[in-house]
Amino acid sequence: MFKPTTRHNIPASSDPRLEVKLNKRASGVGSSGRWPYRLNFYDRPPTLDITLEEFETCAISRLRVLSHIESLSHRSLPYAQLSAAISTYLKQHLPLASNTARNVNTDEERRRDEIGHWVLRLAFCRSPDLRSRFVRSETSLFRHRFETDDVSERSAFLRSLQLDWQQVDESEKAMYADQLKGCMAWGSKEDAFRAETWFKVPWYNVPDLVGSRRVFIRGGMAYVPQSQQISLVLQAFSARLEKALELTAKNLPRLDEDERLGPVIDHLAASFLSGLGAAEYQSSENSSGSVVTADMVDDVARKHFPPCMRNVYERLKKDHHLKHFGRLQLVLFLKGIGLPLDEAIPFWRKMYGASMSDDKFNKEYKYNIRHSYGQEGRRANYPPKSSPPSPESSQLVYSRSTRGLHLDPSIRVSSVESRFPSLESRAIVSLFKSFGNLRRIADPSVDPTLTPLPLRSCQQILTQNQPGTQDSHGCPFRHFSPDNLQSFLLSSYPQLERSSPEMRDIMDSVKSAHYHVACTRVFEVTHGLKKGDGLGKDAESVSHPNKYTDRSRELEREKLDALKPKEEADDLMQG
Amino acid sequence: MPVAVKDEVMMDYDPSSPQVMNAFYRRLFPPAKLFTHREFAFTLAGDIYIRYNSFHSADDFKKEVLRLNPSRFEIGPQYSARPRDRKTLATGALQPQRRELVFDIDMTDYDEIRTCCSDKKICRRCWGYIAAAVKVLDHTLRETFGFRHLLWVYSGRRGIHCWISDAAALDLNDDQRKSLVTFLEVVKGSSQQAKKVNVRGGRDDAELHPVLKESLDVLKPEFVRVCLRDQDCFKTERQWEALLSLLPQDREVSSALRSQWQSQPDLSSEERWLDLVSAVGELKKNGKTALFHKYEKAMEDVILQYTYPRIDAEVSKHRNHLLKSPFVVHPGTGRVCVPVNPALAEEFDPETVPTVGELLHELNGIPAESEETKGRKMEDYEHTALKPYVDMFVKHVAAVLRDARMSRKSVIKEENTDF
Known about the structure:
The complex is a heterodimer of chains A (about 575) and B (about 425). Chain A is mainly alpha-helical and about 575 residues long. Chain A has helices at about 15-25, 50-75, 80-95, 105-125, 130-150, 150-160, 170-175, 175-180, 190-195, 205-210, 230-250, 260-275, 285-290, 295-305, 305-320, 325-335, 340-350, 360-370, 390-395, 400-405, 430-435, 440, 460-465, 475-480, 480-490, 500-510, 515-525, 545-575, and strands at about 50, 165, 200, 215-220, 220-225, 410-415.
């Protein structure tokens, strides 16, 4: 039987049941009331009665979504895949239908969406770090909804915002015709150009478009085509949210006490922080058990270093010098493989060689090494062996049972409105005052005075501190030209052959910008693994140089262990 | 205490000597108004580094400078609180807020393309690169980004700094700074990458961004002047091989040029470049338009790679980055970090910049009665070669202040000044 794919194709009168629903909704609060649109800039605080139960559950589902989005965005997925992944997750945890959706209670959805957002604002306004992460994930969420929104509804929403963008008039458009065409992605098609309209905004309002050179700029104004409007909207969204969060943070201490909400809010923030663990490397128990000494580094480098570290290490050996970021990359990595501080200093001393005086070394370099080990400056360090958070805590798990708090859901917090936005009024939270260090709550085993200077992950090596013209740090797959990469790989890994199918695989992955795939392939080839084995455990791919080395050393140990019983058996046979 | 320097030859004014620096700060360093929340970092003799200093007033600052007598000092951002109080503040309460947008261009980044000097050295000839960089960056920052208060400052040895003090520039956050720098960063890539200019969005025959096209027009004559004539960048085989490696590898064009150049080792860079131009011109005549376009774009990229400003991106991206203050003496060379007029950047000769020794020497020669003649007490600097530079700086500061007064809509508690 024929089934229409979109519901609004059905004439409203054709189905009496739908009719009833429609009427019911129209008679209720109505989507034309508080939430006329699916999208929301969260400008007006919720003026609603909210139960404690709702207060908590709405916030938790939103928190789940945000931290899922955050971890997805770290995985550098292709756009379509990312968007599909977010869609599926959202449908499950925080559905939000458009006005055209029929048998959905859109009001209830929008209400939950809004409450969740405002509760999380309270939880996340407290430190600049939390604020910026909250703004980033909220903006991604908004972006996703904006992009998937119904076109007409979206434009109605935009009109309602009344953003004051200055439209570029015809004479100005004609004046800069060549320049504007030059910035259009689809080339200089005449009719496309004529149909397009431009807005003029200060360039710093659209940093992403400026950074990628997608707009024309003149006299401090960026000329943003209608098709890039989303950048403007997102900028407006995140700017407003940022400002609002700062205001909330300022007013927070003035809140009076309410013992019921404080713990909830505290725990929300703490959960988000511990969710961060997923992206961070934790040295595994058995690798941290084996200490590497200064003399062993060379041997370990030859057998177990990933290409990026191999490269900086070889450079250091050759030049007896590394630029700052190269040093940082290697120092932290070595720390991660178990080179203790008192071995690191002789190691670096030796590497710098005789060309550097002891005095210069002690003055200029020793400090930095000690700093990386958390012995200087703000002493930023996680000692490599400190109890690594359990794997469960590294994904966001909000478990109500661990909270040890009993809120009676039947207690109604009346008119939360009065406390949310105009935070001067009555109060919610008592614990904010005694609230000290979020991290202490997140992981009590970690000394709260130490802030982490985590080991560099692939993500960081790939995207932060791009190597300058004289630098040698970075990821060889990303920062070498193909020819240089190939000869580097050939000289460093004798297992690889020029014009072998493996090499072709690697170079293809590099060409399509899948650097971690290329690196994983190198690992497979050099460790005698099949294609697709990954790091040998759950077909994981390389996401952290230390993981590469840990797995490599583990594999070696496994091999040795496998040999040992055999030798013993041989001995027995002979005996 | 009188100036404790001997009244002999200039060589005796060693910039690393404390007395010399003390005399310099006491008598020559131009006064500047300050933010109370602004960070100053001092480097003392023996590489002792003191960060997070801040001061109530210019007098306070001067007193402290005279007391500590640093060999150099650097300026950081204006923080949300007074940096000197940082130990008593809650964690995270000290956040960088406003800061001039700064750029740093250093000659070491040009080592692979300059032929006259390398490493720490600099001469009039390699200054040509800096002059070209100043020209194009100054143009872009003013015309494209609409900044008006740019102060270019010689860094004392082999580079140049730019301080932008427009209110809009001061307020930029780190993200916005980063995007601006990414926009301006054209020459990128590590030492392992031959072609460092990739600005056509993946397609190597796409058009340049209009703003870059503008820069290219500014740079073309500079390329001829600096790279082809003065530096002779494609003279040796290694050099012109580097050039060929940046172009499409077409057998007819590149290989022909290669064998032609191998047989003529004495050709100048300009002649080689003209060879290339005519060979590429042939392509067009022969109707090989696609290949012609590829070569044409690649040659544009070569010009960018050899002349476009190589800025140190990290300095500009973060508000909390420290940058050496103008008018500080470079501890290695003794030269004062003087402002440079961007319009006359080509004529600027780093070797004629006054050193601290020369200045103090000039001071010792002032006739005592000249102070009375004009009815007003002349500042010490006005007797020295520093005067035109200080005047330039004062003019810049005045312009910034005038602008700030005009648009003082938001409440700024501190005295707003440049510096």
